[in-house]
Amino acid sequence: MNAHRGDAVLVGTWAVWHAVGMLAVVVFGSWLALDADTTDLARVYASPSWAHPFGCDDTGRDVLARAVRGARTTIGASLVGVALAACIGTALGALAGSRRGMVDAIVMRLIEVFVCFPTLLMLLLVGACFGSSPLAVSASFAVVMWPSFARVVRGELLSLREREYVQTARELGVRGMRLFTGHVLPQLRGQVAVVAAFCMASAIVAESTLSFLGIGPGPQSGSWGAILAQGKANLHVGVWHLWMIPGALIVSCVLCCHALAERMRPRS
Amino acid sequence: MLRWLLRRLGSAALALLGITFVTFCALDLAPVDRAALELARRTEEPGAPELSTVSRDVALAKLRLRYGLVDEKTLQPAPVSQRYLRWLQNAATLRFVGPGEDPVEFRSRIGRALPVTLLLGSLSLLVALLLGVPLGAWLGMRAGSASDRAVGGALLVLAGLPDALVATIGLVLFAGPVFDWLPAGGFGASDDAASRGALAAWIDASLRLVLPIGAMAIGPLVLIARFLRESVARTAASPFADNLVAWGFPEPQRARRILRVALSPLATLVGSLLPMFVAGSIVVETVFAIDGMGRLAFEAVRANDHAMTMAVTLIGAVATLVGFVLSDLLHRALDPRVRLDA
């Protein structure tokens, strides 16, 4: 049992450091001044080396520099999208959970509609219609992911409103917005954070899939999915690093999100 | 039972209406002038006559009229509600295209793609169930042991793999660089294999299906295994399982009874897996060059093919809704406790 706990702590620590490292790359990546665009036919398909730790792609561009730029698009777009989804979802879920009646019914029907929607199809649709800038991708994530937040927040609210401390606060005269932001919202933080971590994982996968298919924020942005697509296209040449590196980056980020969700799960 | 089913179908129909509206909005609000796009495509074709400004305007107006973008009488831009109702009317009668295009050809494109995807999807679901259920049950019976933790960790990693990466790894391992055992794509037997008789053609066609099915099945498989592990472990720790011990049932019988109880919530999961298969088919069919619904959807979205995108989205949504209703039905049939709530 003790060893089990030790594992969990170790994984949690790794996840936190991984997340911090990735965020640092996203925020400060441009300071590294890596050259992601220079093509050089002499180093086409070059394997990882000291000069190019991640190797070079099919036109001789440095994959490390492209992966750093890709982190900005992949993680940046996912973060903004999940944050938007969390705001919309929490607001609608809170509305449904506190007003009940007609509002509740409408929001629940809306959630049902969006849950039945095949996610990737929705993303393709929105992506094709509103262009493929990172912002458009973020907006489409918000459209697809808000129901997860709304459902959790609504369910929690329904159980919280029956709790004694909320009823006491209400009897003491705390009402409306104040009751929600001051007394209920802090209790929801943990749940929302867990949903956000899971949504972040699926957003990273979705963004990579979109760029892999060639619909995401474009090959110029160096998104991880785009590098993976390059790797897949050049399989016959026998280059390994071109698909392994973006693949490992995507998988490690997804695992990091799952581990963070596990760590943040409220213990009851 | 009948009343429950009617209510369930009613809410599904409402959701379907909502889905059509959301799809319509997503396509209709897009800042793309389809008439101008179509005209540009036509004038770029080799041998197309040069258009004067007047004939260009006439052609644009005709296209807009055909797409229902303008009102037939006033020739002013039609309001959104009118365009939506018109589209809904067409969709209800399976006429997804404008009056000038060929609905028969349009339907035959879907008719060719749909069986391919249905075959892929149902085989993948079968594989996921055949492997996922025993694996989940085995893990659940050993919950907390070293083997459970090791396999559980591996499943967690697998759950994080995007379909695109799974397909790429499959190609690397089995279609060239490592083992050159399987063909890298396509659907149905090649001409070469077909010329060597029915058996060779059949073998070739099934070999081509191995990688796509594997890539599509792995996500649902992991979900099923992890879900069932939780369910079995929970049931095995419940008073119900203690009761079986107290009654003196031998181990194999106990395991069978626990499994029977733990399996019933799986029915709801299988229904909610359907959107995953729709998404999986888009990636997998594109990677393995299979002409199914996923590829049709992908190409339609890329080519700004308004009518086809709508049709494919609608079919995907209907399939998902039917899956939800069926899994609810199955869950009620398997688990008497659910019936008590209604």
Describe this structure in words.
The complex is a heterodimer of chains A (268) and B (342). With 268 residues, chain A is mostly helical. Chain A has helices at 2-28, 63-99, 101-116, 119-129, 134-160, 164-171, 176-213, 224-233, 241-264. In chain B, 76% of the residues lie in helices and 0% in strands. The longest helix of chain B is centred in the middle third of the chain and has 39 residues, at 103-141. The mean pLDDT of chain B is 80.
Gyration radius from CA atoms of chain A, angstroms: 22 Å
Rounded radius of gyration of chain B (Å): 26 Å
- Fraction in helix of chain B: over 70%
* Spatial shape of chain B: globular
Mean pLDDT value of chain B: 80
Q: Which two protein chains have the largest interface (Cβ within 8 Å of the partner's Cβ), and how many residues from each?
A: A-B, 44 and 51 residues
Per DSSP E runs of 2 or more residues, the count of β-strands of chain B stands at 0
The percent range for strand residues of chain A is: under 5%
How would a crystallographer describe the biggest sheet of chain B?
none
How many distinct helices of chain B? 16
Task: State the separation between the terminal residues of chain B, measured CA to CA.
Answer: 9 Å
| Main sheet record of chain A | none
Low-confidence stretches of chain B: none
Q: What percentage of residues of chain A falls in helices of 4 or more residues?
A: over 70%
- H and E string of chain B: HHHHHHHHHHHHHHHH
* First and last CA, distance of chain A: 19 Å
Our estimate of the beta-strand percent of chain B is under 5%
Q: What's the total count of β strands of chain A? A: 0
Number of helices of chain A: 9
Please state the structural category of chain B.
Answer: mainly alpha
Query: SSE string of chain A, helix = H, strand = E?
Result: HHHHHHHHH
